[in-house]
Amino acid sequence: MSKFTGVWAIFEYLDETTETIEQIRKQGVQPTVITPCPKHEIDHALGEPTSLVPWIALAFGALGCFIGYSLPAWTASDWVLPVSGKPIVAIPPFTIIGFELTILFTTIFTLLGLFLLGFIDSLRFPIPKGAKKYRRFQRDRFGVVVRCDETKLEEFESIMKKNGAEEVHVEKE
Amino acid sequence: MGTTAEYNASAGRVVIDEHRGHPGIKATTLDYGQINDEMLAMLDKPNPSYYLLLLGFLMALGLGVLSFAVQVDVGIGFSGISHPIAWGFYITNFVFWIGIGHAGTLISAVFYLTRAPWRTAIYRSAEAMTVFAVFTAGLFPLVHIGRPWLAFWLIPYPNERMLWVNFKSPLLWDVFAVTTYMSVSIMFFLLGLIPDLAILRDEAARRGKKLKALIYAPMALAWRGTNHQWVHYMRGYLIFAACATPLVFSVHSIVSWDFAMSSVPGWHTTIFAPYFVAGAIFSGLSMVLTVLIPIRAVFGLQDYITNHVIQSVAKMIIFTSIIVGYAYATEFFIGYYSGSPFERAIFYYRPFGEMQSWTLLGDNQISFPQIAFWLMVFCNVIAPIPLWRWKIRNNPLAVWIIAALVNVGMWFERFNIIGSSLQHEYDPASWGEYWPTIVETGVTIGSFGFFFTLFTLFAKSLPPMAIMELKEGANPPLKHAEKKDTNE
Fold it and tell me: H or E segment at A6?
C-alpha cells in the first residue's frame, strides 16, 4: 500500500458530488470518484474519461480471427484429406471457425484487459485505507478522493466542506 | 448545480436524463440503500418449501445420473438409438437446451444494446439460465457418444498419426460454437456479477457477518467502484454485449447446420438457420417466463418484475411464434414445390404417418413423430394465439400456462425434426421406428433436474436481479430536488 497524502470525503448527493469534482478539476487536479453505480453525470464532470479496453479487444479479436482461419488451413494442409471434392483449404467453412475464435479471443482478452487496466489504475490512483474500509460506497454514498501535497490540503478540504460533504478526512504521509 | 441535472420549472423538480427512467419499476421510487436492502432480503435463509423444491429437483437429477450410469455400464445399445435412428432423445435434448440458453443472451446483450429498460429486472436470472442451460446442453454430446471418456477426440490436436480433426464437418463447427458460447456466457455472467458481489461483501461486513464478507471478498476481485474501474468496466461490458449479439444468432445457426449440411430429407434446407434461431429465442423466452413467474410470486417481486415486463416478453413470444409458424408452413410448401418425392414423403410422414393410409384412424398406428408433430403445432402455433389479447398477456397465470406449453412444444419440435427424418430416409428397406428407452427418458428427466437444481441454488446464493443496474435506473439522490420537494 503506497503512502497517501490527500483529502477524501463522503457525499450523500449526486449533484453535490459533481459540483465538487468540477471545482477540484478547476484547481488542476483529477480526483478519483467512488460511486455505487455508474453515472453519466460523474463522467461528464470528470471530462469523459476514456478506456484502452476497446483497443485491447480489437487487437486480440484480430489475432483470434487470424488463428481461426490459419489453424484449419494449416491442419488441412498438414495432412491432406480430400472430403467430397471440396477444396483442401476451403474458406467458407473456415469462416465459421474464424468467426467463433474472433469472438472468443475478443471476450477473453476484454475481460483480462479490464482486470489488468483496473489493477494498474489502482496503483496509479491509490485510495486511502479509510476509504476502502468505508462500507457505504457500495450502498448509497459517493466518495471523492484527491491526492495532493500538504500545501493544498486545506484548500481541497474547504471545497469539499463547502459543497456539503458528510465527512471529510485529511490524510498525511 | 451538477453538469447534467437541470432544474425544470414546469415540472417543479430536477430532471436527470429522463431516458434512463424505468417506468413501472418500483426501484425508481426507492433510494439506493433501500434497493440494497430489498435485494439482500431475497438472499435470507430460505423457508422449508425451498428445500423441498430443491430435494425434488435433486431427485430428478439423481434419476438422470443413475440412468446414465446404467447406460455406461451396459453400453450405448441400452438406449433406443440404433441404426437407422442414430440421433434420438439425447440430440433432441442438446438442441432444446442450447435453444433455452438463447433468451438469456438476447435479454442481457441484445436488449442492452437496444436500451430496452424492462430488461433490468429479469436479465440476471435470464443470464443465469443461459449458463445453466448451456451446461446442461453440453452434457448431451458426452452422453450421446456412448464412450464419454473419449470425448477429447473432438478437440483439435493431432493424434499419433498426426491426423487432425476435420474442420469442414458441421459437427466440429458445433464444438467451436458451443464451447465459445459457453465461455462467453459464463464470462458475461460473472462480469455482470462483480459490482454486486462487492455490494454483498460490504453489506455483509457492515452487518457484522464476517464469514460472509470473507467469502464474498475474493469473488468481488477488489472492486471499489472507482471511476477508473467503472470506465473500463462499462466499455468492457459494451464490448461483451456487442460480441454476444452476433454470437447468439450464430450458435443456433451452426447447430442447425448439423442437420442442414446433410442430405437427409427434411433436414437439407436453407431455412434451417433462421428457423432454429427463432425457435431458440421462442423457447428461451418461454422458459424465462416459466421460471420467473413462480419466482415473482414466491419472492413477492411484483413491483420489479411488473406485468409490463411479462407483457414485453409475451410480445416477443408472439413475434417468434409467428416466425416459427411461418417456417413450418415454408417447410411444407418447399416439400411440395421442390418436386422431390423424398421431401414430399417426409412431410407427409410427419403429420400423417405411413403413406399407405390417408387416415389417422383404422389400422394405421400412430408413431412417436406423429405425436411430436401435432403437439408441436398445437403448442407453438395455436397455444400462443391468445397472447394477442391484452387481457391474457396481463394475466400471469395464463401467460405461465402458455409459456409452459411452448416449452413442451419446442422440445417436441426438436424431436420432430431429428427423429422423423431419420426414420424415413431414402430407402424403405432402411426405414425404422424410434421409441426412447427408460435410460433416455431418465437422462432427459435428469437434465431438467440438473437445470432447475442449479437455478434454485443460484436464486438463493446470488442476487437474482442486478442491484447495480437497478440503482442506475433509479432516481439518484439529489440535494436540490429534495429542497424543492420540501418547499412544496
Answer: strand A6-11
